[in-house]
Amino acid sequence: MEDRRGYDREDIFSKKVKAGKRTYFFDIKSTRGNDYYLTITESKRKTNGDSFSYEKHKIFLYKEDFFKFAEALNESIEHVKNELLPDVDFSQYENEEEENSYRDELRWE
């Protein structure tokens, strides 16, 4: 895959996470210097009458920031779970993707 400047950017790994009306893509790509970075893309479907489009937001995360980013993300999630919403059973959301995947399969049968 080539970027806007004509440089080859190889996709190394990709993970798609469906979350309600949003979809998140976690993509590992290589640089021309044989280094790696992560892009996190949020894609949200927008309806415009009979047609639709996608609104996308992207974060580029480089290896020197992986630890700090993951640490801040985990700390923020734990704060919401333990301090702001201590009575919420978050385990109910763990099987949500499996259920949505099963529902999608049934729609196509």
Q: What can you see in these coordinates?
A:
- The chain is of the alpha+beta class and 109 residues long.
- It has one domain: Roll (Nuclear Transport Factor 2, Chain: A), CATH 3.10.450.
- 29% of the residues lie in helices and 39% in strands.
- The radius of gyration is 18 Å and the shape is flat.
- The two termini are 34 Å apart.
**Total helical segments:** 2
Secondary structure class reads alpha+beta
Estimated share of beta-strand residues: 35-45%
CATH fold naming: Nuclear Transport Factor 2, Chain: A
Give a short account of the largest sheet: 4 strands, antiparallel
CATH class: Alpha Beta
Estimate percent helicity.
25-40%
Tell the overall outline: flat
**Order of strands in the sheet with most strands:** 1-2-3-4
InterPro entries: PUR-bd_fam
Protein name: DUF3276 family protein
Keywords: DNA-binding
Organism: Algoriphagus formosus
Question: Mind sketching the topology for me?
Answer:
Blueprint lengths: L10 E9 L2 E9 L5 E13 L2 E12 L3 H19 L11 H13 L1
Compose a concise summary of this entry.
This protein has 109 residues and is of the alpha+beta class. It contains two helices and four strands, in the order ββββαα.
Name some characteristics of this structure.
109 residues; alpha+beta; Nuclear Transport Factor 2, Chain: A; 2 helices; 4 strands; flat; disordered C terminus
